[in-house]
Design brief:
The structure is a homodimer of 352-residue chains. With 352 residues, chain A is of the alpha/beta class. Chain A binds a DNA duplex (16 and 16 nucleotides) through helix 2 and helix 4.
Chain lengths: 352, 352
DNA sequence: CTGAAAGCGCTTACAG
DNA sequence: CTGAAAGCGCTTACAG
């Protein structure tokens, strides 16, 4: 039954064609010093002619290595994730690893399924960029001895290599920028509480407000998913207040678009009556119609850092856990401006 | 050396624990009728207790089936692709297949590499949504007997299952909409010539203009990639004309954003002086600041159709090739309006 | 430097 | 209904 309907040639076929043993072919193709150069050359030539390719299934079964990496993201639809993936992919491909991207759609069930699947498949490593991550998933990876790095969202309960964003400093610098424009009542629309990044940004917001205004007003805090709809809803709640905030820091551009949308519906002028700062700098933010002031996150770098950490971990499983942080830069566009005069803000609010 | 440091249990381990032969465990787990129900129950219980999972590497090596599908996309950063992926993924997961997403970044080299990789890996099928596809890649898939479906971009030279968009009818209906608003000089900004969809839309545009205006003016045609920058550049070329077009149909929303950007820079009012229609309906198009009139493509459906075709093909490799087309719907928002009076258009153009 | 042998973890005829 | 055996395609000690 072997080699029916021109199936792929095997090591045996190559060996036969070369008149040597399969093990010699294997050693030659792996470029082991043990094989004589002439023999190597011959074997390589014939292997190529025959169109031989080693079966990763077979060699993976034998060696336990598959030269593949899995990257699990929670929303492949969000361009932020796409950029980060690219950063990781470039770094990995260069080292001859292949990247399998899996999308969980924010579903914990699907995420566990994928993780189990990749463990079964014996990928050489996993990069996890998912807000749906939970302890069991990560424990499963640890138990299976699969090198894992966490991306953007860190898990507090377990020590793991981590590629993330410098949140505290960045939040403080945006808020300083806003206060320098005269803003006092600054709202905050954060991400899901399950995200470590979202928590860090919220805490940084609070500590800044604490120091600057003497207290952080919980009425100025909103949170939700990273989506337009979520930002839209948060805004309606946030701007119903009197006096209402004159500026709002939003934890993600996608969410900020929802804020822009709601402000437009409510007839609130941006930036005259409301300044908005986003986070990430997605492609839409630079369109003149949007022109969102935002924190530009070096997305590719974030992915490249994750790849770097993973490669290190794979090379040295017992090394100390490491964290790599990327620092965003403020890009001032036209959704921010000087705070309106106190009276104006109050008037505007009471007109509602 | 077996089972050192709590490695995963094997079929043998389960068999030993149950006091049966490995083959019986295999048959039981595969739910073959040949195994007695009680034996099955016992085996299942113990297998579960031991945390046994069949090794896809081993079973793949033996059977040639891996229960995995690869989907190759050219730009994971474009939200259009993300949505299509989701549609395919949902359909596939439901049937217990896992989806590996690979991103080629438009690079032919990387695409060939991934395709070869997936062939080596013996995935059960491939969905190709890439503008970088070329004959050799597809031939490689065919030679390796890997069921393949083409998504959005079809290959003329080879018969393949195809999930795509109804372009001709859709283009005609948009153009009818524009002429009903009084537009005569309608420009067209298309996609890359390597994309079958782009070619179909261009041809549909030409045939419509032919019929409606007596001829299609090549000066009104532009093309480029599906990107903001590309749309931006095309617009500068297109609107330099005198008289300039009063409307433009753009082959993709991303490109249309670039048109919007350029129009804004050039001080051309939309829709008073220029009507713009996009294609796809990406998330940004519904933001009030953008509010782009566009053809909404049922993206998930597109992906689901591809999955359906692939599953069919896998079940029946010798069936006739099939094509599934999805029909977009016009969503009228605020970038389209009545054509300006002839004089106005001329005046505006001469003011430049 | 080369080859024969064992084994990775499964599945599938086949014999009992 | 159950078990012993062969083999998927590789790699890696080991003997020569």
């Amino acid at each position: 039954m072997r080699n029916n309907n021109r199936a792929r040639p095997t090591l045996r076929d190559v060996a036969k064609a070369c008149g040597v043993a399969p093990s010699t072919v294997s050693n030659a193709l792996a470029d082991k010093a043990v094989v004589k150069p002439e023999t190597k050359a011959l074997i390589r030539k014939i292997a190529h002619e025959l169109g031989y390719r080693v079966s990763p299934l077979a060699s993976g079964l034998r060696t336990g290595k598959t030269r593949s990496i899995a990257m699990i993201v929670s929303d492949i639809t969000n361009p932020f994730h796409g950029e980060v993936v690219r950063g990781a992919e470039d770094a990995l491909i260069e080292r001859d690893y292949h990247l399998y991207i899996a999308n969980t759609d924010g579903s914990r069930g699907r995420q566990s399924q994928y993780i189990q699947h990749f463990i079964d498949r014996q990928v050489d490593g996993v990069i996890l960029m998912s807000y749906a991550s939970n302890d069991e998933d990560i424990q499963a990876l640890v138990r299976a001895h699969v090198p894992t790095v966490l991306l953007v969202r860190r898990q507090d309960t377990v020590e793991q290599d981590f590629s993330g964003i410098e949140n505290e400093h960045s939040v403080h610098s945006v808020l300083e920028f806003l206060t320098s424009l005269g803003h006092q009542r600054i709202g905050f629309i954060g991400g899901p509480a399950s995200s470590s990044g979202a928590r860090e940004r919220l805490n940084a917001y609070r500590s800044f407000m604490q120091k600057h205004a003497g207290h952080a007003d919980p009425a100025l805090e909103e949170s939700g998913e990273y989506s337009i709809d979520s930002g839209h809803q948060s805004t309606y709640r946030l701007l119903r207040q009197n006096p209402r905030p004159t500026a709002v820091l939003v934890s993600e551009d996608m969410t900020a678009y929802g804020v822009l949308m709601a402000a437009s519906e409510m007839g609130i002028k941006v930036p005259e009556e409301l300044s908005i700062v986003g986070w990430d700098d997605l492609f839409a933010s630079r369109l003149p119609q949007i022109n969102l002031t935002t924190m530009r996150v070096p997305k590719r770098q974030l992915g490249a850092n994750a790849a770097k950490l993973l490669l290190q971990r794979m090379a040295n499983p017992s090394a100390d856990v490491e964290t790599l942080l990327v620092r965003p830069a403020l890009v001032v566009r036209s959704t921010t401006g000087r705070a309106p005069q106190e009276e104006q803000a109050v008037n505007a609010a009471s007109q509602e």
